């Protein structure tokens, strides 16, 4: 048999490939801690949390300023 011909089983040379690759990861599966995607995800989540906290702090400051202005102003 010529080495360029396909195997009779119909499978290529990777039929018994024992590589560590097990296929695509599930979207909801946890990634290793040092995986670049996990690092990027944690960074993105931290940035979103910081932005939300800053928005809430600004809103609270506006409300406090508004309420403080009402207390000192005669009606």
Overview in brief:
By secondary structure, this protein is mainly α. The chain is built from one helix and no strands.
State the distance separating the first and last CA atoms. 101 Å
Give the total of beta strands.
0
Quick one: overall form?
rod-shaped
Alpha-beta content class: mainly alpha
Largest sheet: none
Along the chain, the helix and strand elements come as: H
Q: Approximately how much helix is present in the residues? A: 40-55%
Low-confidence spans: pLDDT under 50, at least 5 residues?
Answer: none
Whole-angstrom Rg? 30 Å
Strand content: under 5%
The average pLDDT score comes to 77
The number of helical runs is: 1
Region (Disordered): 1-75
Biased composition (Basic and acidic residues): 1-20, 34-75
List keywords for this structure.
75 residues; mainly alpha; 1 helix
Q: Your description of this structure?
A:
The protein has 75 residues and is mostly helical. The chain has a domain at 34-75. It has one helix and no strands. The protein has one helix spanning 36-72. The radius of gyration is 30 Å and the shape is rod-shaped. It starts with 35 loop residues before the first helix and ends with a helix. 0% of the residues are buried.
């Amino acid at each position: 048999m010529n080495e360029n011909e396909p195997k009779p089983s119909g499978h290529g040379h990777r039929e018994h490939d024992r590589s560590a690759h097990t296929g695509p990861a599930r979207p909801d599966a946890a990634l290793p801690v040092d995986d670049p995607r996990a690092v990027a995800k944690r960074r993105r989540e931290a940035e979103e949390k910081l932005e939300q906290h800053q928005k809430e702090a600004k809103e609270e400051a506006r409300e406090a300023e508004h309420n403080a202005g009402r207390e000192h102003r005669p009606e």
